[in-house]
Amino acid sequence: MELPLVVGVDGSESSLRAVDWAADEAVLHGVPLRLVNASMWERYEGAALAQELGRPSGRVMAENIVGTAAERARRRDPDLKIQTDILPEDTVSALLSEGRNASALVTGSRGRSGLAEVMLGSVSLAIAARADCPVFVIRGNHDPQSGKHRRIVLGVDEPPGGSAAVRFAFREAERRRAVLHAIRAWRCPAHEAVDHARDAGDAARYHKSQAAEILEAALREAVADHPTLEVHRATAEGPARMVLMNASAAADLLVVGAHRRHGHFGLQLGRVAHTVLHHSMCPVAVVPQRA
């Protein structure tokens, strides 16, 4: 059975852009699109109170939201299989539950709170941090159909920590017929800095060489599995979060891994993933690494 691509919709412009992007992605992968609206309206309002106040009930509003989203998705491709659902529970819990039977989750960069788009919404951040499946957070304003850069950027962690993200990025690049740019950032620790220029240069060359070795090891298996994919390797000096944020300006998708840690909060986002989710200039895919 094909696992659907699940989108959380709340009627905001951000979520509607996520629907556009997800519709194209579902067509690309040949999977159904599932549109979900979740809120606690039933607990706090109820249909009777809404009628007394002379306004549409939360249920009616939710139906309008998913209906509008479904119509928008059909305009992207009339043959796309679309499912809709309204879930009377909190949004984070609902989408995390949906993610257990989804090929991926898709969210906008913010909800209906009115906060500046530069800041990621709390729901999107929670989903990206805790979902069992890959999560796409749709950032940027470019047309999702354009694929104007034909470039996917992959932030490479040390193997085996980022192996799931590596495999995911290779598959996405191959589907899109895009070039994959794999980047490993490196830094020369401050305590290694010395006054002697040649020694300082040696230290920098050492760390750059180590980054190149890590990069090559992380990609080796995926390169063998995707022999026709064009892959560019790069090492860059600087904080990884800044290197990837800058690279996102010329990318259609930025892929990063997230590591599962034991504890109440499940999947935890490191500083790199957290930063790019807030500031990336293109959509971001957060891929969980299972133990």
Regions with pLDDT < 50 over 5+ consecutive residues?
A: 111-119
Q: Order of SSEs, N→C?
A: EHEHHHEHEHEEHEHEHEEHE
Globally, the shape reads elongated
Portion in beta strands: 15-25%
Query: What is the number of helices?
Result: 10
Helix content: 40-55%
Q: What's the β-strand tally?
A: 11
Look at the helices and sheets and give the structural class.
Answer: alpha/beta
> Distance between the terminal alpha carbons, to the nearest Å?
25 Å
Question: What Rg do the Cα atoms give?
Answer: 21 Å
Summarize the biggest pleated sheet.
11 strands, mixed
Taking all residues together, what is the mean pLDDT?
A: 84
Provide a descriptive summary of the structure in words.
The chain is 43% helix and 21% strand. It contains ten helices and eleven strands. Strands 1, 2, 3, 4, 5, 6, 7, 8, 9, 10 and 11 form an eleven-stranded mixed sheet that branches. β7, α8 and β8 form a beta-alpha-beta unit. The longest helix is centred in the last third of the chain and has 29 residues.
